[in-house]
Amino acid sequence: MGNYVSCAIASPASKHSKPIKIISQTGEIKEFQQPLKAAELMLESPNSFVVNSRSLQIRRRFSALNADEDLETGNVYVMFPMKRVRSVVTAADMGLLFLAANSAARRSATAEFVN
After folding, report:
1. Is the pLDDT reported for residue 25 higher than 70?
2. CA-CA distance, 87 to 38, in Å (whole number)?
3. Is 7 among the domain residues?
4. Integer distance in angstroms from the first to the last C-alpha of the chain?
5. CATH code of 104's domain
6. What domain range includes position 110?
7. In angstroms, what CA-CA distances link 38 with 12, 34, 48, 51, 104?
8. Does Transferase appear among the keywords (predicted)?
9. pLDDT tens-digit profile of 85-106?
10. Is residue 10 part of a domain?
11. Averaged confidence pLDDT in the chain
């Protein structure tokens, strides 16, 4: 029956948390450190919907996020045109993700090589 005292160095969570990554319809990748709702992305691109990349499976329907959903740090989200909201995920859709990830990895490797 004693008292427990603990000490820890406080630092902003954003420095240690992984960013939220967004892949646009063009394959451009944006990173956000601050909290973000799906609605904010939909306002920037009104004819699009947002999907968590973890939910994408070929030959399964898209699982679009609700506008009021919070995007989670460390996750990758993808924007698709609204006309596809009721369609199924294709191999070409997954190819877009692969190309975007490959391009980002190359840019990262080049930046590390230059520095």
Report:
1. yes
2. 20
3. no
4. 55
5. 3.10.20.30
6. 18-114
7. 23, 13, 11, 9, 22
8. yes
9. 999 999 999 988 888 878 777 7
10. no
11. 84
- Sign of the alpha-carbon torsion through 90, 42, 12, 7: negative
Domain count, the chain: 1
Residue 41 falls inside a structural domain: yes
Instruction: Give the separation between CA 100 and CA 96, rounded to whole angstroms.
Output: 6
Q: Is the pLDDT reported for residue 4 higher than 80?
A: no
* Residue 22 near residue 30 (C-beta atoms within 8 A): yes
Residue with the two structure tokens 């450190």: 33
**Residue 20 near residue 73, CB atoms below 8 Å:** yes
Q: Mind listing the pLDDT tens digit for each residue in 26-64?
A: 888 999 999 999 999 999 999 999 999 999 999 999 999
